Automatic annotation (TrEMBL):
Pfam families: RRF. The gene is frr. This is Ribosome-recycling factor. Residues 23-185 form the Ribosome recycling factor domain. Responsible for the release of ribosomes from messenger RNA at the termination of protein biosynthesis. May increase the efficiency of translation by recycling ribosomes from one round of translation to another. Its main location: cytoplasm. Signal peptide: none annotated. The keyword Cytoplasm applies. InterPro entries: Ribosome_recyc_fac, Ribosome_recyc_fac_dom, RRF_sf. The lineage of its organism: Bacteria, Pseudomonadati, Pseudomonadota, Alphaproteobacteria, Rhodobacterales. Belongs to the RRF family. It is found in: Cytoplasm. Keywords: Cytoplasm, Protein biosynthesis.
Length: 187
């Protein structure tokens, strides 16, 4: 192997890990019929002139398996939090009780479960695209090194390394998607 070229595989792994972590966060936001505070994480509220995560304007609790509550700290933000939840596409109808917003989690019907599996599939596809973009960056580095005098054997070795890494991460995405779709379809 060439002494002057060393592909930073740690950087590629770090970036691919980021795509997987983002996918897990998006999957956590998909409700599966059970109440979870994490389903509110992607929702942003227009508070004090900027977009703020919902957990930074109130306390999120899960007092029972089919209920999430948000105790909004600033009474003036209650309406904005309610509006953000309604517009989030979660399909939950917030109920107000002073500064507490209650979110009853309805049973998922078959149609809604199928919709959620499609959403999960879209999230997984975005993660695959991110991983492929990291792969492309790695391949571009290898091509540049080839034009700078890297041997063909070294080029093939590094391309195979990048491809193996990509395949491993794509497989992780596929497994995570399969698990999430199973969880969603579980009655």
């Amino acid at each position: 192997m060439s002494d002057d070229f060393e592909l930073d595989t740690d950087d590629l792994k770090r970036r691919m890990d980021g795509a997987i972590a983002n996918l897990r966060t998006e999957f956590a936001s998909l409700r599966t019929g059970r109440a979870s505070g994490s389903m509110l994480e992607p929702i942003m509220v227009d508070a004090y002139g900027s977009q703020t995560p919902i957990n930074q304007v109130g306390t999120v609790n899960v007092p029972e398996p089919r209920m999430v509550t948000i105790n909004v700290w600033d009474k003036g933000l209650v309406g904005k939090v309610e509006k953000a939840i309604r517009e989030s596409g979660l399909g939950i109808n917030p109920q107000l009780n002073g500064t507490i917003i209650m979110l009853p989690i309805p049973e998922l019907n078959e149609e809604r479960r199928r919709e959620l599996t499609k959403v999960a599939g879209n999230y997984a596809e975005h993660a695959r695209v991110s991983i492929r973009n990291v792969r492309r960056d790695g391949m571009d580095q290898i091509k540049k090194a080839k034009s700078d005098g890297m041997s063909e054997d070294d080029q093939k070795f590094w391309e195979q390394e990048v491809q193996d890494l990509t395949d491993k991460y794509i497989k992780n995405v596929d497994e995570a998607l399969e698990n999430k779709q199973e969880e969603i379809m579980q009655v």
